[in-house]
Write a structure and sequence with these properties.
131 residues, globular, binds zinc ion, 2 strands, mainly alpha, 8% strand
């Protein structure tokens, strides 16, 4: 057994199930429920993979397809402004705490230089959005 944690080895589908049981069955951004089957849960990366974000549960939330597609590679701060404009529950404080947990995981595991830079810049932006 390597030192990586079990959830690293879960495949994407099982990781999404684990995320849903961690966070509850609703879109992280717009809060639409997944339980009635009308919206499909997709895996959303807080730090986009394009920006070096790892496929770890600490970097992943569940989002509905429309939110996932609309966000694309939009930076977290800019995306939360769009969420506010759409009337979605805006949660910069929640996103900040997720980024803190991700940073802690990166400290433990090392590497992820690009993700670290992204987190630092988004932290500055998100802190300005919190009261
Ligand atoms: Zn959504």
């Amino acid at each position: 057994m390597s030192s990586t944690t079990t959830h690293d080895r879960l495949d994407k589908r099982r990781r999404l199930q684990a995320i849903l049981s961690r966070d509850g069955p609703q879109c992280f951004w717009c809060a639409v429920p997944f339980d009635d089957g009308s919206r499909v849960a997709t895996t959303e990366h807080l730090v986009p993979r394009l920006k070096g974000g790892p496929s770890w549960m600490e970097n992943e939330v569940a989002a509905c397809k429309p939110c996932n597609q609309r966000r694309g590679h939009t930076a977290l701060g800019a995306w939360l402004v769009q969420c506010q404009q759409r009337g979605y529950p805006s949660r910069p404080a929640e996103v900040l705490s997720r980024l803190a947990a991700l940073s802690a995981a990166i400290e433990r595991r090392g590497g992820q230089r690009r993700a670290r830079r992204y987190i630092a810049s988004q932290n500055r932006r998100l802190r300005k959005m919190t009261p």
